[in-house]
Structure formats: C-alpha cells, structure tokens
Design a protein that fits this description.
Helix 4 runs antiparallel to helix 5 and helix 6 packs across helix 8 (about 150-170). The chain is about 65% helix and about 0% strand. It is mainly α. The protein has 2 domains: about 1-45, Arc Repressor Mutant, subunit A; about 55-215, Tetracycline Repressor, domain 2, CATH 1.10.357.10. The protein is elongated and about 60 Å long. The longest helix is centred in the middle third of the chain and has 28 residues, at about 115-140.
Length: about 230
C-alpha cells in the first residue's frame, strides 16, 4: 500500500471510530487496531488524534462547499426552482453519502478545544453570510419573500441540521430523496417564491453594515458559491 492509500485508510478507519465512540472517547489504539497498522505507523502520518480528526472535518467542509453551485435566475435552460432543488439534493446527498462524517459534524465537532471551535464558527459564519447575501439578492429579484434575510438564513440552516440529525443519529426512516424533497417543499411554502419569472434586478450600492457583517464571517474554509448567482458587473 502506497503512502497516499495508507493515509486514506487511516482516515477512513478513524472516521468510523470517531462516529462510533465520539472524539473524546476515541483512542489511537482503537484506530490503529481497526486500520491494521502499528502505533508508530500512525504517527508517521498524523501528529495526534486531533490532527486526524481535523483533517476529517476539513475534508467534509470542502465536500459541502463543492456541492453548492450558483443559481442563475437568467438561466433559460432551467428554472430557479429546478436549480434550487438540485442544490438541495447535492447538499443532502453529500451529507447522507458519508453518514459517519455527518454524525461527527452534528455531535462531536464542537467542544474539541477553543481553537477548533473558532474554526467551526468561522466556517458557519461564512456559510451564513453567503446565504444572507443570496437571500437578499433573491428578495430584489422577487424569488424570496420580504423579511429579515438573516433570520431566514438561520431557519434554513436549522431545518437542514435538524432533519439530518434525526436521520443520521436517530435513524428516522426517510430516504435521501424524501429529505431533499421535504426541505424544498417546506421552503417553497415559506420564504421561497421560485415559480414565477424573476424581476429585473436593480443594482444597489452595498450598505456599510453589510460589508461589516460579511467581513466578520470570513474564515479559512469557504464554500465555492451561494445559493443565488450574483452577476458580475459588465
């Protein structure tokens, strides 16, 4: 087995141990036993338990970011509703495809240590600000209901986290398709107005408080796009 394959094998087995035992109760001895390696081999690849845990979480955040694609209200080939549904399906699919990592993110990632908590908070603030910006853009286009965009963002994130918790941690009997369809239906009956044609966008100068809010949430890990496409100025 090459070094790349060995490293991935350690990550895979560590992920299962963390998901089963939790971060604090997981032991390196258990990880190396499941990986079928010597303890010394583990330390050739990772400094300690926290290092392997951090890489698992970092990879999960990267995969989540890659699942999000831009929604373009001007796309003539797909409606906004279809694009939003595709986004939800990709995100849900990514998180349910690797249930062990999702279980870790939902229950064990918080509380590792203060530095790790700050890293997690930074990521969630980036997601929050991207979603807020997208919702405000959607309000300008008439595809999101009027209201507090930040409140909408919190509610959307809460919906996703809770249904995933119920499915992954409590074995709620819902398929991936049922989860994605249910989330879209819930949002469609709430703040989304995605079945009518979007209004023409009127460009407005960003407010000072928006810039401050957006800047406050930037961190080392950033998803590659928001839910609604912000067109670049010509």
């Amino acid at each position: 087995m090459g070094k790349v394959e060995r490293r991935q094998s350690i990550l895979n087995h560590a992920r299962e141990v963390f998901a089963r035992r939790g971060y604090h109760d997981a032991k390196i001895d258990e990880i190396v036993a499941e990986a079928g390696i010597a303890r010394g081999t583990f330390y050739l690849y990772f400094k300690d338990k926290r290092a392997v845990f951090e890489e698992i979480v970092d990879r999960a955040f990267t995969h989540i970011g890659m699942a999000i694609v831009r929604v373009d209200p001007q796309d003539r080939g797909r409606t906004v509703a279809e694009q939003v549904q595709e986004n939800i399906r990709r995100i849900v699919g990514t998180l349910l495809e690797d249930r062990s990592t999702t279980k870790i993110l939902l229950t064990d990632a918080v509380g590792v240590d203060p530095a790790f908590d700050r890293k997690l908070q930074s990521f969630y603030e980036v997601v929050e600000n991207l979603l807020v910006d997208s919702l405000r853009e959607g309000q300008e286009l008439g595809i999101v209901a009027p209201g507090d965009a930040r409140m909408f963002a919190f509610l959307m994130m809460g919906v996703l986290k809770e249904i995933l918790y119920q499915v992954v941690r409590r074995d709620a009997p819902y398929t991936e398709d049922e989860v994605a369809t249910g989330i879209f239906s819930f949002l469609e009956q709430g703040c989304l107005r995605v079945h009518g044609p979007p209004k023409s966008k009127v460009e407005k100068a960003p407010r000072a408080d928006d810039k401050l809010r957006a800047g406050a949430g930037r961190g080392p890990t950033t998803p590659n796009a928001g839910m609604v496409h912000r067109r670049a100025a010509d």
